[in-house]
Amino acid sequence: MITAESVEQAVEQLSPTELAKFRRWFAQFNADAWDAQIEADAAAGKLDALAEQALAEYRSGQAREI
Hints:
Blueprint: H1 4-12, H2 16-43, H3 48-59
């Protein structure tokens, strides 16, 4: 089994070029994982209360443009 510590050690040994490649890969990996979690939470209804609160604030004129 690979541990976080072994990954950390491997990353510390990367050349600057390989570290840059790893950063790009990890940023995309992390973004994809975040998107998947948000989609799962939305499908499970976990965001419904937040959406309803935002819509209620919008309907009552409490929302403002950003």
